[in-house]
Amino acid sequence: MATQNENIFLNSSGYTVNPDLEAERKTASFNIELLTNILDGGAENTRMRRAVNAVIESDPEFNIQNEYFQSQSEKYENSVRRSVHLRKKMEEMGWSKNGPELVYCYRAVYNALAFNVHRVFINCILGLGSDEQIAKWVPLAEKYYIAGTYAQTELGHGTYLRGLETTAAFDATTQEFILNTPSISAMKWWPGDLGQTATHAVVFAQLYLKGKCYGMHPFMVQIRSLRDHSPAPGVTVGDIGPKMSFNNVDNGFLSLKNVRVPRENMLSRFSQVLPNGQYVKKGSEKINYLTMMVIRAGMLPTEVIPTLMKACTIAIRYSVVRRQSELKPGDQEAKILDYQTQQEKLLPQLATAYGLHFAYNYVHNIFQKAYADTKEGKFDLLPELHALLSGIKVIATDYCSAGVEVCRRACGGHGYSLLSGLPTLYNRLVASCTYEGENTVLLLQTARFLIKCIRMAHDGHPLPSSVAYLSSKTSEKCKAQEKRDFLNPSVYIEAYRHRALRNVRSTAVKLQALIQSGVAQYEAWNRCSVQLAHAAVDHIHYIVVEKFVHALEDLETEAAIQRILKHLCDLFALHGIFSNTGGFVQDGYLSQEQVDMVTESYLDLLTIIRKHAVPLVDAFDFTDTNLNSALGSYDGQAYQRLYEWAKKSPTNHQGNRVFNTYLKPLFQNALSKL
Amino acid sequence: MATQNENIFLNSSGYTVNPDLEAERKTASFNIELLTNILDGGAENTRMRRAVNAVIESDPEFNIQNEYFQSQSEKYENSVRRSVHLRKKMEEMGWSKNGPELVYCYRAVYNALAFNVHRVFINCILGLGSDEQIAKWVPLAEKYYIAGTYAQTELGHGTYLRGLETTAAFDATTQEFILNTPSISAMKWWPGDLGQTATHAVVFAQLYLKGKCYGMHPFMVQIRSLRDHSPAPGVTVGDIGPKMSFNNVDNGFLSLKNVRVPRENMLSRFSQVLPNGQYVKKGSEKINYLTMMVIRAGMLPTEVIPTLMKACTIAIRYSVVRRQSELKPGDQEAKILDYQTQQEKLLPQLATAYGLHFAYNYVHNIFQKAYADTKEGKFDLLPELHALLSGIKVIATDYCSAGVEVCRRACGGHGYSLLSGLPTLYNRLVASCTYEGENTVLLLQTARFLIKCIRMAHDGHPLPSSVAYLSSKTSEKCKAQEKRDFLNPSVYIEAYRHRALRNVRSTAVKLQALIQSGVAQYEAWNRCSVQLAHAAVDHIHYIVVEKFVHALEDLETEAAIQRILKHLCDLFALHGIFSNTGGFVQDGYLSQEQVDMVTESYLDLLTIIRKHAVPLVDAFDFTDTNLNSALGSYDGQAYQRLYEWAKKSPTNHQGNRVFNTYLKPLFQNALSKL
Questions:
Q1: pLDDT for residue A269
Q2: Which residues are in the Acyl-CoA oxidase C-terminal domain (chains A, B) (predicted)?
Q3: Interface pTM (ipTM) of the complex?
Q4: Which of A497, B296, B369, B497 has the fewest CB atoms within 10 Å distance of its CB?
């Protein structure tokens, strides 16, 4: 930055709270701390979360304030440094690697760590390895004496595992597997930690025994030297380059040419190759299936939902600090949150963040039950759980990504600055719509389960609890008489149930009709797939609304909090109807008059919740460091921070090279003329 | 990148066309070159565009291949270098600075140039300056002897010009204006070219004469030395730091403390301050109002619509090259474009790109007429034109941004790599929803015009042509009997007209009722603003559908092209109904049976257009260099390019520092154990 006489508007620290923001906090109708405790699952969790966060924030090694100025390589280096330091810190603090503190550590610095897939690598060995393999590899990995990655996805192959091309052929003479990447599309591509870090990889490859393919199996492969990090013989490995975000992670590529590993390196909990080349299957992999679900479920409370909560915090605080235009003629410029259009952008996102938080708790509980069952060898809940988790992963990642972007755009030009924090939140979060199961693929898996349930119901079989309604009758008409009826949860739950039931059923009918008309099953499925995906969304949306309502019933002892959350729940439900009226009216379930009632109730709720908006985001309890946003800090001094942070930008510390090289030769022509 | 034995899958150039892509081109039902000519507005334009593009592409100075690897500072430096070079190149080629070649230059390298606001600076002087001021400043700026910017937006103030705080007080004793930035929120913030380049700025400030405020006026202020680029006395200036994109542009901040400029530096075409401090108003600024509209309109064909066209080109080509999962059991993996869900993502975006292209042509024609009128002192068309342009700017930027992101996500994981080109297209384009008029603000301006028209119609006054339908009766029911009736443009145009008319009218009724019930006008407006914004969208969507249909009528002599564009037009219209059924069914205009017909017709169209998808994107005629995408090149060798480009990433040329510093000390512990 070039400056002749430094501005004197600012103290570099110790801002007082912006009075426009302070005023918002004075009107809180509920105890913010109590709501924070509820969100944390208890006051003790809040205490521990804050303690961990304080440790992290007070350690300069974890400082991420300059991340918006860093190149991909700088981000990577800092993440490696922090990850190595975190391991030490955890030992020092006595935090267990599977304990609650780790979750809170991740909440504080997750976006700025490396070695994330290293943990998947460890879990993979624990899940797929024999006891000997676990004993050999896991301790080395836990201590970071080796760095691992999980190499499954290939350049030309993702979701469809049978399509993977990498091969592992057994050579009985040397008792080795020979791994090969037979084509460019077979290169491993995308694994995290592979690009510049990993020394080892669990490589998934088609197992060949005497020329016969036995399908995908996992192999432990050393890919780089522990001594000098050079690639192992036959290995080509590198970084896949810059991404939309996640540039702290070194996603990589890997190509293998006649790479030999000993027979013991096939992870063999579920199947094994004997020295003579015989294939032996051992036990069910169903339990392992659950492990994949753990990852898919774990994303939501750690990465997905909190990201929307952060975006809401930033955008709502900024919207009471930013003043723009006259609302009432002659008044000072109005807080932008007082405009109905701004409320309609932000408050439904706030309701969504709360709704998904509570709906996830429900899924988590089913999940715990299924996990307990599985340990006893019962796998009955798995199909339902898979359909539910797939669906809620889609809804959560889709709604949260879209919501973050709505928040970002609602901050106008300043939301476009990286210093607002919002572009990074969006660019990172939107990846979750693709990883851990591409959303359209997952929706169709949920739909497949729903169609199966419709058929079961048709044949008189009982249905699992989350889909039991599929065997009920559709209601004809909504019974609401006036707009306040739409604040009755049973009214809107019924509307969502009706929509889901009608859509799942009518799509099942279409599918059946196509098949009966002679269309091949696969073709009929494809021709219904747009509608199947919609039906799955409607089903999950219904579940989320219903579980949000149920969660509130547990809060009876906290009337003030229950009241405000009830408003949010109503808003979440009515926003869904207001924004997708078609599904509720096309068969006459809602009349035009009822749509008008929904609209009026919905708009009324905006005014109500607007008053509590700041306390409701304060309850998420993100520190300024967590948010890392010039717009969203607790003190509301958005303009001062934007200016302070901008001054630190490297673009202001470049010297005069561009001027001297390109501009001076031109500008000097004007000297004589001005 | 670390590599032991280099892969041999690749030649570094001269790929043959991927047979999966080649096959798509063989089925083209129309002459692609002819469609390209139509899009260009004639074969001669196509020829000139290609000639200009070829000149740019053959000049290594304009090479942008490495842009995905560059830091903000590198991007800026390269953009300055290219811009200076482009000026030379244009002289060398004899291309006029206002000629058609410049448009084609921008198409080729726009995203990688600096000095873009410099042109706004020049236009501002031409529009607001006196003849003497134009004669003094414009030649200097045209030759780049000075670099200018347009400093209007402030840190705390955007849309609402009356809220701007910068002051300019006249000092009659020295015949100077004294400019000041009275608070931090008054700093100029965001102007392009200001951060590191500009020597001069047109600064908008509240004019004070003898203590009385005369409102916003433009002042020419030198902000940096031409000799050494240091800030002028009293000036604080710098770069606002990293953004979501546009990092080639040095958006800046500017603070002024008692900066004095001579009286002659107030741009004085429309008003002047005499030596005695007297204020003199001269003529109407309405013509200047049109200049702002020129900028807003100019974005669409140069930046907004082509960006969606590029994204469609990349995603559709990739979708016939990418194979994933079995569609028909036992077959090879299917091209992902053969999945209905993929078609439903991409093909409506393709239809939108074509639809907006043709609808823009209509707006452009009205615009030309208004411009001619204005020169004759007639301003009658301006309010209509303003409402139309505001609305179409919103629709185009919203739909194109959303569409680009749909295309990006439809490319799965690889769409997340910067090398796909897609993240950059989105991150850049989405800014257009905010700049040149924030979209919600613009929608409400369009709505204000519509409400005024409803009142005029009510009072029996005639309405301008684009809104004449607001005085017609609403039709009761859609007359379609079977699904193919929805391929009749008059049927869907009527449906869109009905929706717009009902929504504009019902919102006007609500507004009026609120006011009559005693709610203050400003408050009533705010309480209707969500619905007003929706009504404005419905109005503009109707216009776009109608103008798309009309554009096709001009293509009667080209039957094959007319036929395929008719399919796209149908798809655009039916996609809008399918995705927003509510607006069409809530008052019973469409019955449930008709909604089902729309759905079936819509899904049928996907199958039809899928066959022509590649020829339809080829017709956009982007070169590989224009696209700069590893996924979307003409030859369809997506995987090879991803690999070739990734190898060039700086992350693969960092040496062993991170390993030696952080990892080696850990890994050496494993040496004895493995």
A1: 93
A2: 488-667
A3: 0.96
A4: B369
If pLDDT is split at 50, 70 and 90, which confidence band does A110 have?
A: confident
- Contact flag B586-A592 (C-beta cutoff 8 Å): yes
Residue B203's contacts (CB-CB under 8 Å, 6 or more residues apart) are B151, B166, B168, B179, B188, B218, B219, B220, B221, B254, B256
Classify domain A34-113 at the CATH topology level.
Answer: Butyryl-Coa Dehydrogenase, subunit A; domain 1 (1.10.540)
pLDDT tens per residue across span B639-656: 999 999 999 999 999 889
Can you tell me the distance from the alpha carbon of A506 to that of A387, in angstroms, rounded to the nearest whole number? 19
pLDDT digit string, tens, across residues B111-128:
889 888 999 999 999 999
CA A356, CA A359: separation in Å to the nearest integer? 5
Judged by CB atoms closer than 8 Å, whether chains meet at A649 and B239 is answered as yes
CATH superfamily entry for domain B288-617: Butyryl-CoA Dehydrogenase, subunit A, domain 3 (1.20.140.10)
Encode pLDDT of B377-393 as tens digits: 788 888 999 999 999 99
Return the pLDDT at B99: 82
Q: What is B41-113's CATH number?
A: 1.10.540.10
Average pLDDT, chain B: 94
Fill in the amino acid letter for B224.
Answer: R
Mutation choice for B interface testing from A230, A235, A586 by most B CBs within 10 A: A586
SS (H, E, C) B290-343: HHHHHHHHHHHHHHHHHHHHHHHHHHHHHHHHCECCCCCCCCCCCEHHHCHHHH
> Residue A37 in contact with residue A43, Cβ under 8 Å?
yes
> For position B98, what pLDDT does the model report?
78
The answer to whether A236 contacts B599, with C-beta atoms less than 8 Å apart, is no
Domain range annotation of chain B: 41-113, 146-283, 288-617
Q: How confident is the model at residue A289 (pLDDT cuts 50, 70, 90)?
A: confident
Which residues fall within 8 angstroms of residue A665, CB to CB, at 6 or more apart? none
DSSP state of A323: B
Whether B537 and B443 have beta carbons less than 8 Å apart is answered as: yes
Question: Residue B1's pLDDT band (boundaries 50, 70, 90)?
Answer: very low
Q: By CA distance, what is B153's nearest residue in A?
A: A413
Place of tokens 């609808």: B359
Mapped onto helix, strand or coil, the DSSP state of residue A253 is strand
CATH superfamily of A144-283: Butyryl-CoA Dehydrogenase, subunit A, domain 2 (2.40.110.10)
Task: Please name the residues in contact with A590: beta carbons below 8 A apart, sequence gap of 6 or more.
Answer: A478, A495, A577, A581, A584, A598, B586
B238 or A674: which leads in pLDDT: B238
| Residues of chain A contacting B66 with CB distance shorter than 8 Å | none
Kind and range of the H or E run holding A3: strand A2-3
CA atoms within 13 A on the CB side of A156: 25
Q: Is A438 a catalytic residue?
A: no
What does the pLDDT read at residue A11? 37
Domain pair A34-113 / A288-618, same fold: no
User: How far B674 CA sits from the closest chain A CA (Å)?
Assistant: 9
- Cβ neighbours of residue A497 closer than 8 Å, sequence gap 6 or more: A469, A542, A546
Top-level class of domain B146-283 = mainly beta
Distance CA A153, CA A165 (A): 10
Question: Following DSSP, what letter does each residue of A604-653 receive, concatenated?
Answer: HHHHHHHTTHHHHHHTT---HHHH--SSS-TT--HHHHHHHHHHHSGGGS
**Please, is A153 exposed, middle or buried when counting C-beta atoms within 10 Å of its C-beta (0-12, 13-18, 19+)?**
buried
Q: Helices B592-610 and B340-375: crossing angle, nearest 10°?
A: 90
Chain A residue numbers touching B250 (CB-CB < 8 A): 651
Rg (CA), chain B: 28
The CATH fold assigned to A288-618 is Butyryl-CoA Dehydrogenase, subunit A; domain 3 (1.20.140)
What does the pLDDT read at residue B4?
Answer: 41
Letter for the amino acid at A159?
A: T
- CA–CA gap between residue A530 and residue B610 (Å, rounded): 15
